[in-house]
Design a protein that fits this description.
- The protein is built from 15 helices and no strands.
- By secondary structure, it is mainly α.
- It folds into 2 domains: 115 residues, Orthogonal Bundle (Tetracycline Repressor, domain 2); 140 residues.
- Helix 3 runs parallel beside helix 6, helix 8 packs antiparallel against helix 9 and helix 9 packs across helix 10.
- 46% of the residues are buried.
Length: 297
C-alpha cells in the first residue's frame, strides 16, 4: 500500500521541479543561504506539487486506463481508493502550503498557490481534455517552482523572477510536444487534444522550433540584465542551438518516435544545464562586480 501512496505523487515530477526550485533559490541568493528558509521552500514546494499530482491522478484515472504509460497507476487499477486519495491530497496540501506560509515568504506562497490552481484546476479539470492550448496553460504551473525558489529569497516578484517564469514557460512547450509525439498512440487513444494530435507532427515541429528559439533568446536575457556571466551566455547559446538543430534537421532521418525521444532528452539537457549554470555563475558576477540591475529591480 505504501508504494501506491508514493507512486501517486509522481516522484519523478517532484525531483525535476525541485531541481528548478533549488536553482531559482541559489540564483537569487548569490551564495547567501538562510537554511531554514531554504529547507522550508524545498519541503513546502514538494508537498504542494505532490498534492497537485494526486489531484491529477484522481481526475485522470479514466484516461490513465487507456494509456500504456499510465495504465498501471494506483487509481487506474483500483489499488488506491478515490476517497483515500482525496484525503491524502488534502493532507499534502495543508503541509505544503502551511510550511511556505509559516517559514517562507508571501511571494513564494503566492506562486505555489498559482502553480497549484493552474495545474490542478485549469489544466487538469478543463484545458488538458478540452483545448489544444492545454499545454500552454499548463506551462504556467510548470514554470512556478523556480519562481517560488527565487521569491523565497527576495520576497518579491521582480524582473529576475519574471524572466525565469518566461524561460521555463517557453521550455515546457517543445518538451511536452516531444513527449506527445513519442507517446503519440497513447495520447490519441486517450483523446487528449495536444497539438501534435490535433494538427499533426509537422505542424507541431514548426511550433517547437519557434519555442526553442524563444527559449534560447529569453534565457540570454539573464545575461543582458547582468544577472549572470559570459560563461552562461556562451553555454546556453550552444545548448539552444544544439536543441534547435536536432529538432529542425534530425526530423525524418529516422522514425517520429525516435526523433521525438532525442528532442525530449535534449530538452532535459537544456533545462538541467540552465538550472546548474544559474546556480553557480553568480560567482563570476560577484568577482567582476557586474551586479547590474540586481540591486535595482
Amino acid at each position: 500500500m505504501l508504494k501506491h501512496y508514493c507512486s501517486v505523487v509522481k516522484p519523478g515530477i517532484i525531483i525535476g521541479n525541485m531541481i528548478a526550485a533549488i536553482a531559482g533559490y541559489l540564483f537569487a541568493s548569490k551564495g547567501s543561504m538562510d537554511w531554514l528558509n531554504f529547507v522550508a521552500m524545498i519541503l513546502g514546494t514538494s508537498f504542494v506539487i505532490a498534492c497537485g499530482c494526486v489531484v491529477n491522478n484522481i481526475f485522470d484515472k479514466d484516461i490513465d486506463k487507456l494509456m500504456e504509460r499510465t495504465k498501471s497507476r494506483a487509481l487506474a487499477i483500483g489499488a488506491l481508493s478515490e476517497k483515500a486519495a482525496v484525503s491524502y491530497a488534502m493532507a499534502l496540501g495543508l503541509i505544503g502550503f502551511g510550511t511556505l506560509f509559516f517559514f517562507s515568504t508571501l511571494a513564494a506562497l503566492s506562486f505555489a498557490i498559482l502553480g497549484f490552481v493552474v495545474y490542478a484546476g485549469l489544466y487538469t479539470f478543463k484545458y488538458k481534455r478540452g483545448s489544444k492550448f492545454g499545454t500552454l496553460i499548463g506551462s504556467i504551473s510548470g514554470a512556478c517552482p523556480p519562481v517560488i525558489g527565487y521569491c523565497a529569497v527576495t520576497g518579491s516578484f521582480d524582473l529576475g523572477a519574471l524572466t525565469l517564469l518566461l524561460i521555463f514557460c517557453l521550455w515546457q512547450i517543445p518538451h511536452s510536444y516531444a513527449i506527445a509525439i513519442y507517446r503519440f498512440d497513447d495520447y490519441k487513444k486517450a483523446g487528449i487534444p495536444i497539438m501534435p494530435i490535433v494538427q499533426g507532427i509537422p505542424a507541431a515541429r514548426k511550433h517547437m522550433m519557434w519555442y526553442i528559439v524563444a527559449f534560447t533568446l529569453t534565457s540570454l536575457m539573464l545575461f543582458v540584465l547582468n544577472y549572470v556571466g559570459v560563461f552562461y551566455a556562451i553555454f546556453m547559446s550552444l545548448v539552444g542551438v544544439a536543441w534547435l538543430l536536432i529538432t529542425a534537421f534530425a526530423y525524418k532521418q529516422t522514425n517520429d518516435q525516435l526523433w521525438a525521444k532525442r528532442v525530449f532528452l535534449l530538452s532535459l539537457v537544456a533545462i538541467i544545464s540552465l538550472s546548474v549554470v544559474i546556480s553557480t555563475d553568480y560567482v563570476q558576477v560577484i568577482e567582476t562586480g557586474t551586479l547590474g540591475l540586481k540591486g535595482v529591480v
